[in-house]
Amino acid sequence: MSEVAPSPVVQQIRTKFPNAVLGEAVAVDTPTVSLTPESVLPVARYLKQDLGYAHPVLATAVDWKDRVEVVWHVGNLQTNQLLAFKTSLGVEDPRVASVTPVWAGMDWHEREAYDLMGVIFEGHPDLRRILLPDDWEGHPLRKDYTAID
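Request: output the structure for the sequence above.
Response:
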């Protein structure tokens, strides 16, 4: 990601939530804002209700060994704008609020991040495995995961 001039959307987030934004960059062509974990749900509500980001695109997680990063992409169909917002969580107990109360379409995306990466999305309406069997132990996309022979 490269550093760029602040995007208007991120400036609006900074104004509304002055302590929420930890950084900003552009990944490919997508403005990306880093948020504190506790600000994810209020910012998500603001993005949808006030700024028109009503289209859920994807949610995923990345294991950086020292942290787990959760990334959501949302779109504004009126302006044809895409925005990514992300937060970093501890590897021992990666927990963050679910954005499914804002975008119901993030349901299966968050379930996949739970299943494969172990991220607990607090407030998710149905947080259970989606790809692996219910009795599967561990989260296979985590760097500390070891397959059992």
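The CA atoms of residues 2 and 25 lie 6 Å apart.
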